[in-house]
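Inverse folding, one chain.
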């Protein structure tokens, strides 16, 4: 497919997205992405981690930018799809463990050469970044909605504090408006992902979030607009992770 290229900066496409790695657990998410012209690459279940998040893309896969990625050993089907697109798995496949934080090694948020993550992730990413911003929240990517190369939304106070100190432009929102089966709530980053430079797709209706107006204003002030992929509450599905985009 010569009309597409890898997303050069993880999570931050510069053009309309063609392929995205997503949970294989939600047929409606897959159908909605296909409806708007995005080709989903679905995960399979990882039996080594909690069943509630066993399909979550942001637990099982991490895009490093360009053609490079890290992947859990359970994802043979996803690896085949990625390899067929010309992507290259870096190093050994990851062996995730059930107990936190060893289940969240890949749950790190890349912003070009800056990485936001818990301590358990650092050794796996250190060769691919210039700066590591360590946070207390192991589920870092789940907790972060990337907006642009220096702006993000989070519902975690420790992420807000560390990223603000590091010079990021950060909006802190309340918890409780995103659903995650088996838990009291999910995370803002887990229900969404950028599908174009000016568009973030949310699984569920963003207007159901308690801080909807704050989120919408923050996005629009930065030239980004929300797209709700379905009706009803926001659902933490493990992020929408863009990996290829169309050439201009």
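Residues assigned per position:
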């Amino acid at each position: 497919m010569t009309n597409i290229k890898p997303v050069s900066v993880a999570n931050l496409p510069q053009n309309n997205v063609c392929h995205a790695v997503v949970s294989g657990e939600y047929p409606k998410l897959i159908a909605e992405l296909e409806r708007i012209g995005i080709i989903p690459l679905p995960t399979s279940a990882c039996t080594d981690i909690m069943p509630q998040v066993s399909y979550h893309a942001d637990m099982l896969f991490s895009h490093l930018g360009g053609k490079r990625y890290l992947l859990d050993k359970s994802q043979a089907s996803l690896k085949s799809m990625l390899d067929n697109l010309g992507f290259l798995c870096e190093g050994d496949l990851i062996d995730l463990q059930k107990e936190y934080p060893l289940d969240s090694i890949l749950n790190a948020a890349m912003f070009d050469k800056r990485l936001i993550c818990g301590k358990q992730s650092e050794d796996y990413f250190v060769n691919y970044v210039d700066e590591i911003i360590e946070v207390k929240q192991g589920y870092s990517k789940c907790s972060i909605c990337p907006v642009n190369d220096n702006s993000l939304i989070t519902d975690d106070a420790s992420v807000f504090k560390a990223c603000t100190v590091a010079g990021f432009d950060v909006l802190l929102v309340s918890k409780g408006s995103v659903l995650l089966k088996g838990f009291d709530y999910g995370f803002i980053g887990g229900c969404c992902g950028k599908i174009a430079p000016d568009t973030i797709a949310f699984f569920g209706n963003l207007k159901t979030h308690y801080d909807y107006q704050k989120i919408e204003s923050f996005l629009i002030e930065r030239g980004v607009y929300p797209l709700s992929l379905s009706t009803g509450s926001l659902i933490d599905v493990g992020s929408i992770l863009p990996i290829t985009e169309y050439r201009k």
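The two ends are 14 Å apart (CA to CA). The mean pLDDT is 97.
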